[in-house]
Amino acid sequence: MILLTALLVILLAYRVVLLSPPSPEADGVHPRPLVKLLVRHDGEVLAISGNGSYEVGLPRELDLTVRLSNEADEPGLRGELAAGILLRFEGARIRSYELRGFRSAIGIGEGATIIDPVNATMVELFSDRLGAWQSAEAELRLSVEAEGCLTIHYRGWITDEDDMVHNPVSGSEEHYIARYPPERYPDNPPDSRWAGEEFQRYRVYVVELCPSG
């Protein structure tokens, strides 16, 4: 019952944002989200976008900055869940975090239950708006538990302020969602058809951080 309630809350929240009336007039131009992972290790900063595998000094506590940028002249929609990042860690969990531009954060536990981000292995960070060429950051301190490689699965999104798209599941028109990895049919659509319990079906990038030496 708790799981079902949590999923309904997430789904309804998405629908409140995505089904709000379009303004200004649709123009066919979309935001362009870009997610960067900034890994601090051995006195250096490793900047990562997309997929990759890297050898780094992998301490038991790792500082990670995550940044969502809108790399376009098109601003995003204003709303509670209008933009954000999903991160899932294999071999680490959140020890502490600080939001710098993001409005809120949730942890996601077993069965997609909503939990505190601290000690979570999956988190979502939310921004209420990203204008043209704006960005939001969060500082995460990870407790590394992996004996081998730490794996990070991540994606980002920014909701378009004016262009609409058809959701084949709900049958309604909703705001276009620009994604990172880039939106495409059929496996990474620009709509909220998988909001709720199927939210992990959207495409992600995968990064491995492996001990050097």
Describe this structure in words.
With 213 residues, this protein is mainly beta. The chain is built from one helix and 13 strands. The chain has one helix spanning 2-18, and strands at residues 33-41, 44-48, 52-56, 61-70, 83-90, 92-100, 104-108, 114-115, 122-127, 135-144, 150-166, 173-180, 205-211. The strands form two sheets. Strands 3, 5, 7, 8, 9, 11, 12 and 13 form an eight-stranded mixed beta sheet that branches. It has a five-stranded antiparallel beta sheet with strand order 2-1-4-10-6, with no helix packed on it. A hairpin with a 6-residue loop joins β11 and β12 (173-180).
List strands and helices in order, with pairings:
Layout: H1 2-18, E1 33-41, E2 44-48, E3 52-56, E4 61-70, E5 83-90, E6 92-100, E7 104-108, E8 114-115, E9 122-127, E10 135-144, E11 150-166, E12 173-180, E13 205-211
Parallel strand pairs: 3-13
Antiparallel strand pairs: 1-2, 1-4, 4-10, 5-9, 5-11, 6-10, 7-8, 7-9, 11-12, 11-13
